[in-house]
Specification:
245 residues, outer membrane lipoprotein receptor (LolB), chain A, 18% helix, disordered N terminus
């Protein structure tokens, strides 16, 4: 009986785990599941919501947290500024906690007194590691499978992307939905981990957007964002990215 049980067990394991995907197949399925070309090559994205920032053993509530993004047509580096981007964060009294602008060439920063003490952390918390996935089929990139695991209880495929600048980003892709649930990369201040959840489709365009974002630096939660409104491919006035001289 023991001799018969062992091969049956092996066949059972093979049946469950036998159909595996290559990292490129996972990436292509993720792009298709997230909206296809609409998601892979968006022109603009506008997000607004609320956020909580954690540092100095305190929680700072942002009642207004906004992002404007003009995406680049090409991207060979996961953690280098490109395209155009702006972040605004305001507290309940309406005062600006931080403002970060990159107009495609130059950058501008405004920090409150509290934010000024943590400006490097805040700058890195808004360093995108997500968008590079859209260029994952670049022939100069390298992608490999990592051991599978779970993110917030969801079984995920794990893959590592090495871009043309030799920067690594780890992604976790939900095995059921093929949405990106996690991204992680090294920064000058250590490991940054980003957890995504509450996925919703944008209105009028085939584009999936995670409304919940949690950011961890070196294992400690530093940012929690809840996006309540988002617009895809709608025009953004040039003045949004204007930098005062």
């Amino acid at each position: 009986m023991k001799l018969l049980f062992f091969p049956i067990l092996l066949l059972s394991i093979s049946f469950v785990y036998g159909q595996e995907f290559s990292p490129l197949e996972i990436a292509k399925k993720t792009i298709a599941a997230s909206g296809g070309e609409n998601w892979r090559r968006p022109k603009t994205l506008q997000l607004s919501g609320t956020a909580t920032l954690y540092f100095n053993n305190q929680a700072y509530q942002m009642t207004e947290y906004k992002m404007w993004r003009v995406f680049p047509s090409e991207n060979d580096s996961a953690h280098t500024a490109n395209g155009k981007i702006r972040f605004d964060a305001r507290e309940s009294d309406g005062k600006t906690f931080l403002q970060l602008i990159f107009d495609g060439k130059n950058s501008s920063e405004i920090f409150s007194d509290v934010a000024k003490q943590n400006e490097q952390f805040l700058r890195l918390s808004n360093n995108f590691g997500f968008s590079i996935f859209r260029f994952i089929e670049n022939p100069d990139f390298k992608i490999v499978r990592l051991p599978d695991d779970k993110i917030d209880g969801h079984p995920c495929y794990f893959i590592k992307l090495t871009d043309a600048k030799k920067s690594d980003t780890i992604f976790a892709v939900d095995r059921k939905t093929f949405f990106i649930r996690y991204a992680a990369f090294q920064t000058p201040m250590g490991l940054q981990q980003r957890y995504y959840d509450d996925f919703k489709w944008a209105k009028g365009v085939n584009f999936i957007q995670p409304r919940s974002l949690r950011i961890y630096n070196n294992g400690s939660k530093t940012t929690e964002v809840f996006w309540s409104e988002y617009k895809v491919n709608e025009p953004i006035a040039d003045g949004v990215f204007a930098i005062s001289k």
